[in-house]
Automatic annotation (TrEMBL):
Domain Pellino FHA: 28-274
Species per Swiss-Prot/TrEMBL record: Echeneis naucrates
Gene designation: peli1b
Protein name: E3 ubiquitin-protein ligase pellino homolog 1
Keywords: Phosphoprotein
A GO term, aspect molecular function: ubiquitin protein ligase activity
Keyword Acetylation attributed: no
Family stated for the protein in its record: Belongs to the pellino family.
Superkingdom of origin: Eukaryota
Biological process annotations from GO: protein K48-linked ubiquitination; regulation of Toll signaling pathway
Pfam families registered for this protein in UniProt: Pellino_FHA (PF04710), Pellino_RING (PF20723)
Domain Pellino RING: 279-426
UniProt feature coiled coil, ranges: none
Length: 426
């Protein structure tokens, strides 16, 4: 998943607590891409006020294949959206410069109009190679966000982005229609979905309702299927304005929008590191081997070491790695399915614990006391409870809760478990 923040400063630099924000592909990479954050491919991005406004707004409407319409499409200095109604009829809407807004575009394309390049999320994948064999469902020019350059710095999202020729084309098969005020609007193939949490992005947050955003920024209920030609019902009481904690789904990647104000209330990486050191300072021990356990530094979050804490997800008892309860099928190379906890005899998955390193996903600054099931990513109780309730789009037709740090679908009764540490015996 990706985190995004719009900075309200004037120098174009991200606020210190933003650490650059929007995630490449779903929350998936736990704070950084496997090969490092590079250029427009990052695990998170910061949207900052541009030196010069580049926003656009609708202007003239041309019907059919008039010379004016053809000129608008071919003019690379002119933004336009083309709605193909039939082979014989196309409506072209010209867009003109808007000095009051900054425009940021997101999509799979690596062409220059895309500010933030996103890739498909494959649950549990650790490299870009894991995603290359998967047919992408993310649009090359998925969506655009327009941010006001003056207070209150409102950010609005729209489906589809302008290509290298500054055009958006909605083909004959795309869902499109004429509005009540004789304007045009439409939906992209797999759509852009948005969900605003109730009570903001705080420890009291609750899931909102998923909606679809149109090319012109109108809000609709979801279509019967993701790519159906029949649009949902328009929701006139809601807008496309992004709020702290808004989730944006691009059908293959889910992004988390965080405001600069919201991030100022979340824990920093420095705070998470202090919590890690506090846990380690308590010297938790393995109740079987009696060896001291320690969470590795957040830079080393991929390969377990000898002091790595492990957990039985059925009961939450934390151990070091050992072979107790290692049934025959695990000894034969299928390790990690079910093990018997030596403390309570509960049988379930036995996995290493990893600290959740993306601070933007935390709803509070409480200690990391709970782990997601089945991946073992650790965070605060209220953060675990929040994400376990969020139905995230999966594929083109289903929803399920997932770990924000690795995108694995949550399992078990709650989707997470309280960790039970044993302190030192001395």
């Amino acid at each position: 998943m990706c985190v995004c923040v719009y900075s309200h400063n004037h120098k174009g630099s991200a606020p210190n607590n933003a650490s650059s924000i929007f995630h490449n592909g779903f929350f998936q990479y736990n704070g950084s891409l496997p090969n490092g954050d590079r250029g427009r491919r990052k695990s998170r991005f910061a949207l900052c006020k541009r030196p010069k406004a580049n926003g656009v707004k609708p202007s003239t409407v041309h019907v059919a294949c008039s010379p004016q319409a053809a000129k608008a499409i071919s003019n690379k200095d002119q933004h336009s959206i083309s709605y193909t109604l039939s082979r014989a009829q196309t409506v072209v809407v010209e867009y003109t410069h808007d000095s009051n807004t900054d425009m940021f575009q997101i999509g799979r394309s690596t062409e220059s109009p895309i500010d933030f390049v996103v890739t498909d999320t494959v649950a549990g994948s650790q490299s870009n190679a894991d995603t290359q064999s998967v047919q992408s469902t993310i649009s090359r020019f998925a969506c655009r966000i327009l941010c006001q350059r003056t207070p209150p710095y409102t950010a609005r999202i729209y489906a589809a982005g302008f290509d290298s020729s500054k055009n958006i084309f909605l083909g004959e098969k795309a869902a499109k229609w004429k509005t009540s005020d004789s304007q045009m609007d439409g939906l992209t193939t797999n759509g852009v979905l948005v969900m605003h949490p109730r009570n903001g992005f705080t420890q009291d947050s609750k899931p909102g309702v998923w909606r679809e955003i149109s090319v012109c920024g109108n809000v609709f209920t979801l279509r019967e299927t993701r790519s159906a030609q029949q649009r949902g019902k328009m929701v006139e009481t809601e807008t496309q304005e992004l709020v702290d904690g808004s989730l944006i789904d691009l059908c293959g990647a889910t992004l988390l929008w965080r405001t600069a104000e919201g991030l100022s209330r979340t824990p920093t990486l420095k705070h998470l590191e202090a919590l890690r050191q506090e846990i380690n300072a308590a010297r938790p021990q393995c109740p079987v081997g009696f060896n001291t356990l320690a969470f590795p530094s957040m830079r080393r979050k991929d390969t377990p070491d000898e002091k790595q804490p492990w957990v039985y997800l059925q009961c939450g008892h934390v151990h070091g790695y050992h072979n107790w309860g290692n049934h025959r099928e695990e000894r034969e190379g299928r390790e990690g399915r079910h093990r018997e906890c030596p403390m309570c005899r509960a049988k379930g998955p036995y996995v290493p614990l990893w600290l959740g390193c993306e601070a933007g996903f935390y709803v509070d600054a409480a200690p990391p006391t709970h782990a997601f099931n089945p991946c073992g990513h650790v965070c605060s109780e209220k953060t675990a409870a929040f994400w376990s309730q969020i139905p995230l789009p999966h594929g083109t037709h289903t929803f399920h809760a997932a770990c924000p740090f690795c995108a694995q679908q949550l399992t078990g009764e709650q989707g997470y478990v309280r960790l039970i540490f044993q302190g030192p015996l001395d």
